[in-house]
Amino acid sequence: MKFEDFKLSNELLRNIKEIGYEQPTDIQIKSIPLIMEGKDVIGESATGSGKTLAFGTIIAEKIIPNHGIQALIITPTRELANQVKDSLKLISKHKNLNIAAIYGGVAIDPQINILRKAEVVVSTPGRLCDHLQRNTINLSKVNILVLDEADRMFEMGFIEDIEKIIRACPKERQNLFFSATISDNIRKLAQKYMNSPVKVSVNNLVDPEKLKQIYYNVSRNMKLSLLVYLLEHEKSGLVMVFCNTRRNVDFIAKNLQANKIKAIPIHGGLSQNKRNNTIELFNDAKVQVLVCTDVASRGLHIDNVSHIYNYDIPKNPKDYVHRIGRTARAGEEGKVINILSEEDHGNMSSILREYSFKIEKM
Ligand code: ADP
Ligand code: MG
């Protein structure tokens, strides 16, 4: 299957070539034809499988410059809003669209001006609701509504905001819901607001051939030294170290730095500017190790992550799946290293009950 088979405009095909995509991914193959036909689509596939381009194609083809906000994309986090905005800009380059990334934690006034000119808005739920309340956003022209990482938005408790936003959109519109997993909550929301949706699913969450998962079992006070040892001895590209709490993130980052490892922390307690800078430094490989919480990392695309360390094992098995989805992307190899001590055993057992991963003991 080639991009040429999708009946896309020459301009869009050229943009896709320029970005460097040679072939569509599985979720793109399954969803783009339906999306281009104007159908409501629920797309289920793993993080990193190329969902942005799946909904990006219709946006690049259909949105008309200077005709008001016609596409609205809701994402769970600020980082993701920025990332989706950047991708859409590349995909729709020939139209020079005004694409606004709207999120909280920064001043609201500059956003009001940006919103007046925008044709496409990528926003987190909370700040969008603020704009609705203040009447500083006009959704009357919206004809494409995308929920990106829908499962995550449910987990983060955004459902009321999302329903408010959906109801503020015109009834005549195309709905696209994307998620790594489709829960009952999403099914219910779809039933309520979508128009005969078609579900497409690409199931293999991680390619076990490309992803090696191992664990160490140590006493709690040995975790940090083991992490330092492994970081110094494992040959790796970019590395993400996941912790369950902001406090651990700060603690680990500080201690890695003290051991002359180029590490940088990211979590929801840091200012938006700081988070953006951090992601940039990491993406440009100016620091090798990103120490992070789940919230800060969800849905971000970071290239060349070779190793995922779980310094804490997440309580929610889905978070584990999302963490490990950061590596072994697009056919690359990856390795997941779990550093367990006594208090992680419960969480690890829940993960293994839910998913049949092969995790080798070291
Ligand atoms: P998801 O939203 O499913 O997590 P993204 O849309 O963020 O995935 O895409 C993940 C990565 O794969 C991005 O770096 C993106 O540029 C890249 N990508 C998307 N589509 C393709 C493709 N057809 N070929 C190669 N790389 C792609
Ligand atoms: Mg995505």
Shape verdict: globular
Uncertain residue segments: none
| Strands, total number | 14
Radius of gyration, taken over Cα atoms and rounded to an integer in Å: 21 Å
Largest sheet: 7 strands, parallel
Helix-residue proportion: 40-55%
* Order of H and E elements: HHEHEHEHEHEHHEHEEHEHEHEHEHEHE
The SS-based structural class is alpha/beta
| Strands side by side in the biggest sheet | 3-4-2-5-6-1-7
Summarize, please.
With 362 residues, this protein is α/β, with parallel strands linked by helices. It is 41% helix and 18% strand.
Structure description:
This protein is α/β, with parallel strands linked by helices and 362 residues long. It is built from 15 helices and 14 strands. Helix 12 links the parallel strand 10 (263-266) and strand 11. Residues 21, 23-25, 28, 47-53, 299, 301, 330 line the site of adenosine-5'-diphosphate (ADP).
Question: What is the element layout, followed by pairings?
Answer:
Elements: H1 10-19, H2 26-36, E1 41-44, H3 51-62, E2 71-74, H4 78-91, E3 99-102, H5 109-117, E4 120-123, H6 125-134, E5 144-147, H7 150-155, H8 159-168, E6 174-179, H9 184-193, E7 198-201, E8 211-217, H10 223-233, E9 238-242, H11 246-258, E10 263-266, H12 272-283, E11 289-292, H13 294-297, E12 305-310, H14 317-324, E13 334-340, H15 345-354, E14 359-361
Parallel strand pairs: 1-6, 1-7, 2-4, 2-5, 3-4, 5-6, 8-13, 8-14, 9-11, 9-12, 10-11, 12-13
Helix pairs in contact: 2-3, 3-4, 6-8
Bound molecules: adenosine-5'-diphosphate and magnesium ion (MG).
